[in-house]
Specification:
The structure is a homodimer. By secondary structure, chain A is of the alpha+beta class. In chain A, 35% of the residues lie in helices and 20% in strands. Chain A has 16 helices and 19 strands. In chain A, the strands form 5 sheets. A 5-stranded antiparallel β-sheet of chain A has the order 5-6-10-8-9. Chain A has a 4-stranded mixed β-sheet with strand order 1-2-4-3, covered by helices on one side. Chain A has a 4-stranded antiparallel β-sheet with strand order 13-14-12-15. In chain A, strand 8 and strand 9 form a beta hairpin. The interface between A and B is large, with 98 and 98 residues.
Chain lengths: 532, 532
């Protein structure tokens, strides 16, 4: 029997936080916020009543489509805090009418043909881990219905080219599924977003996913060698090339297209040998500012660490057990080719130049066990959020990127805005920060919010917090998203961020690729006016 | 008095090959091809009769526009072999009617407004070094006239952000002009295409230029932090960001747009500290194939050399003085941050693993003098081509990129096709190869052709050679261009290479940005049907 995923919360049912764990966490949260919290039970499928499907699949596609309640409920939202809150409280007013599971590219073509001709919106759905409303079935407009197109049956690594270190992989392959197929070849895509277990290659490409590595080749953008995309107007296949100067890159139009321009059925991806050398160190700083300067020095040194994760004092305490108020910079290098002493030694020197100390020294050739333990904890974090939802509180993250010259002001403005909003809206709570990625010209800070709330108020209160954060980010020169994508939730700020005339040209491109405007309507741009 | 550029050949008049040097070279070429060559004199401006301008600038723009013969002749073509041959022989049937030199962004806006309303084609012109027909004034169609928009007066480094290592630079700044303004800040863009002295930032961005560094950050694509583009529909300004996940990248639509979507008036560019540490070595291999494998090993090792230039035996002889038939891999590392022993030592080990020997050993901290001498010879090469034109022979280059798995076959097919064409078309000549860039998943080979010909036959014979090369490249899975761009000369192959439906969507985007279709017509796509 296959493993079951939670239809309302994060991940695998067998990995979910237990009622006992939830109660224990609730006690701790209640103590932290000095108020009582009410733990409610998760919803049950039996208690759900979904609106009946408005459309039926045509005969030839019926075997791919389901109107099963669990399927529809599980494909109604992504997995943002807001999504989990709504699902937890049984708010499923706009589920997809059908969930389609194509098993081949011709199935995808046929589904989009039907949707285009019948005026049915098609929501490309990979692992469903969107935290920005990217797979939400409530698309508005005058569509006859909505089909969630679940691509996880297209999950094969079709070809491995060991010489070029590249692999042709189907778009619906979840992280562990594709890594499992690459492992026998000694290779890895080495792309580990936090959603790794519950997101797909096609989803990573469509959302410009960032892996958990900190520098250089880590964004999915740089791993794409060629894409294959089914659009309602036909199939787009780019050429496998290590580099090209032939006009604007076709791949780069689909990287970040969020399902609005086509469905990525396949891609040639740059892969890597599995690393055999490792070196790591953690540097402690008396101030956040000193840590930021050290991270910048490392980012600009041309050393390309795999990890360069700056934790503010709060996160250093909760994530790294450093409770003396230090800011901590976690450094790590990995290589399949060479030992890394020269690299880590110089990175540690950069830290020392900015007052950093390395209490435990450099650990060369640190074991996979340590990295594995950290990764396991990293991947497990979103399960905890379900427990926070169950106790009526707020836990969510948001992220951005900005150039170094603006970073201090951005960080200050965001923290001030969110702390002020937390105080006035929730009467307390915290916002903490770490770096997920660093660049020679800037950093990507990742913020975590934890706040008291009550059942019934969570969604609206989070929305106010999110608006305060997003306004501060935009005003301070950041991007509305560094790797979570735009979806429906970031549209308002995205529309201000992107150049307006360029947006019109993207819309024109969409009209060619998706003339009926059925692909993920409302994401990135408004649906084109319906053809009548 | 300002330095004058050749209107028909490469570069500065005061750097041109002298008649004595040309005669000496002719003797050597004649001996090599065992046939006599006829050296002709370059054309004179006094001998030119250009067709009269078909349009006059409106009163408010008249001060920016010139119909001077030298200006028009000098802006008729780029600087491909074919261009130089045509200009050398006085074939200037379709010069631009006017050459405009805007001195501000509002000038650019006003020029495009006039061109759009008057049906005049506008050819964005940076340094004019295109070798693919990218700035050619013969655009066909039913335009009232053609204006070459020379942007070199927009040449300032406007702002330098030392903290983020970025600079805001105007699009018309030639290489030495922008480096001269960065130097006092201790910075460099470190982008040195062979056309460096005669090409501009805007041209590099528009053509997806490749610098002379071999790995990692070397393509202009990766240095662009934000762009500012004047389109007939308005100004597009993207946000300065070190990274972003907010939809498809607007910058990446303009990187490679070759003047067809707008004029890049400004960009925020990632810059670097000037390198202070260097290490280099040259490895010799008994066979080309062993050298290719070593280059691949270095490219896949994660070492990121600044130089990783593989020279075949012919090029090793002419460029590196290695006359024993060896293939040579020239390796170099540069850093502004740290000594490079560990890097170069490991790269040399990779070579040894594939049978490479390093006769002169590693030169750590090699002097700028050596690099400077090489760069000077590199930048000087195109001047010699003018002499080849004057003696009625053929000298030209072409380039591509392909994944490693296809590389051996591509190299073989291209050499066979071109040697066969040389034999049947020219009765002799040579094609040689080096790598300009290497990637983890492939390489960019650069081919040089030298062949006997006669005045009057050069252009047609080169065209046949070029077709043979381009067919072989496309068939073997390469790109029609890795960094020279598409222009008008590569259109036929580009149209086969790019996904057709994607091309339609790009055309739709152009219709939004350039509704009258006046921008660089015929480049990347056919001009849209004229509005009447």
């Amino acid at each position: 029997m296959s493993r079951r995923r939670s239809w309302w919360g994060w991940g695998w049912l067998d990995q979910a936080v237990t009622p006992e764990q939830t109660r224990a966490l609730a006690t701790s949260v209640a103590a932290r916020f000095a108020r009582s919290v009410e733990v409610r039970s998760p919803p049950t499928l039996a208690g759900l009543t979904l609106p009946p499907p408005r459309v039926a699949a045509p005969r030839l596609l019926a075997h791919l489509c389901s109107d099963d309640t669990e399927e529809r409920a599980g494909h109604t939202y992504g997995k943002s805090f807001r999504d989990v809150v709504r699902a937890f409280h049984g708010q499923l007013d706009h589920p997809p009418d059908l969930v389609a599971r194509p098993t081949s590219e011709p199935d995808v073509v046929a589904l989009l043909e039907w949707c285009s001709s019948a005026g049915v919106a098609a929501i490309p759905y990979g692992g469903g881990s969107s935290v920005v409303g990217g797979v939400e079935a409530d698309v508005g407009g005058s569509y006859a219905g909505v089909v969630s197109v679940d691509l996880t049956a297209l999950d094969r690594v079709v070809e491995v080219d060991r010489v070029s270190r590249a692999a042709r992989i189907e778009g619906g392959a979840l992280g562990p599924v594709l890594e499992g197929q690459l492992r026998p070849h000694g290779c890895t895509l080495r792309h580990f977003p936090q959603s790794f277990e519950h997101s797909t290659l096609g989803g990573w490409i469509a959302t410009r996913s960032g892996g958990h590595y900190a520098t250089n080749y880590t964004h999915i953008d740089d791993f794409v060698e060629a894409v294959r995309v089914v659009t309602p107007a036909g199939i787009v296949q780019s050429r496998r090339l290590p580099g090209s100067g032939a006009g604007p890159s076709p791949d780069r139009m689909f990287v970040g297209s969020e399902g609005a321009l086509g469905i990525i059925t396949e891609a040639w991806m740059r892969i890597q040998d599995r690393p055999t050398w490792r070196a790591s160190a953690s540097a402690h700083f008396a101030t956040w500012s000193a840590g930021v300067q050290a991270a910048r020095a490392v980012a600009q040194a041309g050393l390309f660490p795999a990890n360069c994760r700056l934790l503010d004092a709060s996160e250093a305490s909760t994530s790294a057990g450093v409770v003396d108020g230090s800011t901590v910079l976690v450094l790590g290098f990995e290589s399949a080719d060479h030992p890394l002493e020269a690299w880590i030694d110089r990175a540690v020197e950069c830290c020392a130049d900015h007052g950093g100390t390395v209490p435990e020294g450099v650990r060369a050739a640190s074991t996979e066990g340590t990295a594995g333990a950290w990764r396991s904890s990293f991947l497990r974090a979103p399960y905890g959020r379900d427990a926070i939802v169950a106790m009526g509180c707020i836990a969510e993250t948001f992220e951005t990127a900005a150039t170094w010259d603006r970073f201090d002001e951005l960080h200050r403005a965001v923290v001030v805005a969110v702390e002020s909003a937390l105080s006035s809206i929730c009467g307390g709570g915290s916002v903490t920060c770490r770096f997920t990625h660093v660049y020679p010209d800037g950093a990507a800070p990742y913020f975590t919010v934890l706040a008291p709330s009550t059942h019934g108020s969570q969604e609206a209160q989070w929305q106010q917090l999110k608006e305060a954060a997003s306004e501060a980010i935009l005003t301070a020169g950041g991007t509305i998203t560094h790797h979570h994508a735009v979806g429906r939730d970031h549209r308002r700020w995205y529309d201000r961020q992107r150049p307006p005339i360029w947006a019109e040209s993207l819309q024109a491109a969409k009209r060619v690729l998706d003339p009926a405007g059925i692909l993920n309507p409302g994401v990135l741009m408004d649906p084109p006016p319906r053809q009548t």
